[in-house]
Amino acid sequence: MRFTEAEIDSLCERVRSSMSEFRFVHTAEVEKMAARLAELYAPEKTDILRVSALLHDITKEKKPNEHIEILLNVGESVSEEDRVSYKTLHARTAVYGIIKDYPEFAIPEVLDAVRYHTTGRADMSICECIIFLADYIDESRKFDDCVYLRKYFWGAEPQKMSKEARVAHLYQTLVLAFDLTVKALSEEKSPISVLSIEARNSLILKLDK
Ligand code: DGI
Ligand code: FE
Ligand code: FE
Predict the structure, then answer these.
(1) Distance 51 CA to ligand 1 centre (A)
(2) Which contacts qualify for 32-36: CB closer than 8 Å, 24 or more apart?
(3) Which of 17, 53, 126, 170 is most buried when burial is the number of CB atoms within 10 A of its CB?
(4) Which residue stretches of 4-125 are H helix?
C-alpha cells in the first residue's frame, strides 16, 4: 500500500476541520463506499481510493468566482460553458487544492479520480469509476436517483458475480448514472458536459465488445 492507515487517519482529521459538518458527513460516507467498492474491484488500491474520496470535495464550498480565479491563476481555460456549469468546477480546483495543501497525496491516480469525479471522461480508469460511483451512491444521499442507483448496484449482488460480470455491472451502473444526470440536467435546461457524453459513449462501447 502506498499510504499507511496513520497517514489516512490524519488526512481524515485535516479534511474534517477544513469543511462544514454536512460536507464532511458526505465525504466520510464516500470514503466508506469507495473502500467497499475497492474490495470488489481493486483491493490493492484501497488506500488510493480512500485518499481520493477524502479529498474529492475539498473545494466544494468555494464560490463560483473563487473557482474561476483559481483556474485562471494556474493557466487553465475557463469557457462560457464552465461559467454556467459552475457546479462542475470544484472537481478541477480540488486538484490544485491537493497540490498546494496536501502535496504528499498528489499522485496522478488521486488527482485524476478527483478531477473527473463530477463529469467523468472517456476511458475512465478503475479508480475514476469507483470514485464517480461512490460519490453518487454514498449512504448519506437521499435523492431518488441516488437511492435508485444504490439499489441497482448492490441489489444485483456484485460480490457473487464472476470478475468479468462484475466489471460489466460496474460499467452498466455508470451508464445509468450518466443517464440519470443527463435527464436531470435536461429538465433544468443546464448544459451537459461533453466529458460526460464521452464517458457514457466509451462505457457503452466497452460493454458492446
Ligand atoms: O460535489 P457533489 O455534490 O458531491 O457531487 P458532484 O461532484 O457529482 O456534483 C454534482 C453537481 O454537479 C450536480 O448539481 C449536477 C452538477 N453536474 C454534474 N455534471 C454536470 C453538472 N452540471 C452541468 N451543468 N453539467 C454537467 O455535465
Ligand atoms: Fe463533487
Ligand atoms: Fe461529492
Answers:
(1) 21
(2) 32/138, 32/139, 33/133, 33/134, 33/137, 33/138, 33/139, 34/130, 34/131, 34/134
(3) 53
(4) 5-18, 21-41, 46-55, 64-73, 80-84, 89-101, 108-115
Q: What is the DSSP letter of 138?
A: -
Q: How far apart are CA 107 and CA 98, in angstroms?
A: 10
Can you give 27-47 as a three-state secondary structure string? HHHHHHHHHHHHHHHCHHHHH
pLDDT digits (tens, 9 = 90+) for 8-52: 999 999 999 999 999 999 999 999 999 999 999 999 999 999 999
Nearest CA to ligand 1 atom 22: 85
**Ligand 1 binding pocket includes 151 (Cβ within 6 Å):** no
206 grid coordinates: 466497452
The ligand 1 atom nearest the CA atom of 60:
1
Residue 118 burial by CB count (10 A; 0-12/13-18/19+): exposed, middle or buried?
Answer: buried
| Total count of residues recorded for the chain | 209
**Residue keyed to cell 456484485:** 158
Query: Which residue do the cell numbers 464472476 mark?
Result: 162
Among 104, 105, 77, which residue's Cα sits nearest to residue 92? 77
* Closest alpha carbon to 126 in 92, 167, 160: 167
Q: How many Å separate Cα 66 from the centre of its chain?
A: 21
76-109: pLDDT as tens digits: 999 999 999 999 999 999 999 999 999 999 999 9
